[in-house]
Amino acid sequence: MKNRFTTRYIVIAALFLTILTPVTGAHASGELNTTFGNTNGYLVVDDVPEDSATYEKINDTAAQAEKIIIVGEKGGSLFVARLNSSGQLDSTFGGNATGFIALNQYREAHRIITLNSGDFFVLASNTQAGKEISALIKFNANGTVSDSFNTVTFNFAFNGLFDNFYAADLAKSPDEASIYVALNGYLSTSNNSYNDILLYKFSLAGSYDSSFFTNYRGDPDVGYPTGSVNSIVVSSDDIYIAGYKDTTVNYVTYQIGQVIKINSDGSRDNNFPSPNANFSPAFTTINPSGAGQYNVQIADIKLGSSGDLYIAGVAYAPQINNAYEESEFFVKKISSGGSEVASQIFFTPNYSSFGYNPSLALYGDDRVLISIPYARYENSSYIEFSRIFRLTSSLSYDNFGVEGGITLSDTYSMRSIILDSNQRIISAGGFGDLSNNGYVVSSHFSFDPPGSPTIGTATTASATSATVTFTAPASNGGSAITSYTATSSPGGLTGTLAGATAGTITISGLTASTAYTFTVTATNSEGTSTASSASNSITTSAIAPESGGSGPANTAAADELRRQQDAAAAEKQRKDRELTETLALVPVIAGLAQELAGLGDSILKPKKCVKGKSVKRVSSTAKCPKGFKVKR
User: Which domain holds residue 483?
Assistant: First the structure.
């Protein structure tokens, strides 16, 4: 009976040990990658005097293989720079040893898209005769302007219906055969002012597809804008435009967020979205008295792997007392048919969009990153911040930062967010409301390093090499394991193996006739795990003698004998470990077993009832028969 109780409690103890053993989390907290940049995880550049009439800023970011390209403005010129993976300017970019280029024939770079070849396109802006114009410029991968593409200038000569062309966004077709340029056209005559969403299609050689229907003009007799585009995305068959349109009710004009679907021939799909689906958040948290209708803008749109759309936007109150009224930021998931699938709203009292919009990035599994630049009212003034949230594909908060988000350093206003080639988060912008000088780029971890692998058996392979087996850790840290490394002790010699669930690693360069143990680590895009426990000890073989010398004549046989001895020693060490772990539980389990044994005796031992010389036995809980007494 006692043996049975003891066996059961060993099993129960093992179960408790299994439950209480911690498992490495699937996601990192979003902390800064402090090896990036020049300021503890940030690249901070601020080399234009504060009182200068010109300044530096970043408008967009793109990944180029292991590099990062940023575009914006520097000293009143178009600015393009490339950073290496450590967040430093890449001096090989641009051909002038500075890591950046500045084209003074353009005032500012607004958007960038990169091609698989490394070449990239930039949408820029400038003024001509006091009017806003835009330009599409192609660059080679090394940062020099491509001479195989004739820069396209969008001005009155390109489209005589408008005299101002404001840069909005760039996109490429999935097959990289076409480039799409989205602009906001504006006609500024005193009696016929209106604006329009413009969408143009070009080949990679720069030829304009004139058959592609481009204009979505409102009523030219109405003296206010009828619609604007902020972002576009292209699928294999369709183009989606995200922005807003102006709506008037009772002579009051306000903005409503909208998504337009364009067919592959450039015609509008009027079945998308369904009527009344303006993708406005539900305003339950902000409704200051007398504010009227909130203005809603969709700032960014991304296409998910399953064909769903993700949009980010901001709703803000009409100006009441000052320019910084409360804002509500949102992300929405929309089906390919135009219906809303899920929504998430970010709101805190006294937050303002500060005039700059949120931006989106998607992981391969459609998890969502949203970067939100905002101002917060504190001590009678507004202070600028940025926050990054990560959501699941269904828009619930992910295991990221604190309550799904992280707050960036004080006064940094980030306008762009992407994932680099290692799936690390790159956020870029400038200082405060971007009216100050300088730009900022940050790098954040997306995932954890893996958990520790489980060590297997070490075996001698030769006089100077050994092998060690392992199995994968319980957690890969949220990112695929790319390699495993075995390290010897002593000596620190290593061997590696590409990512696998289990395997054998060979370590070479060992010293003959020397005892070694080994540990194994796992590596993913975010780092390297802690080391596994040490393997069994092995001793490498002796070096075979030269011909005519003394020593074993059959080196192969000696190695085989050594391997057998190592395997036997490893098996003994394994059994010894198991025995040690089991014996460690014995004191606790023995006490429990003793208590249970005593309890069993008191419960199960029958009572003895006597009457004269007659004896009867009854259960411990039963009464003695009439006339019988319990024998004490």
Answer: 2-23+449-567
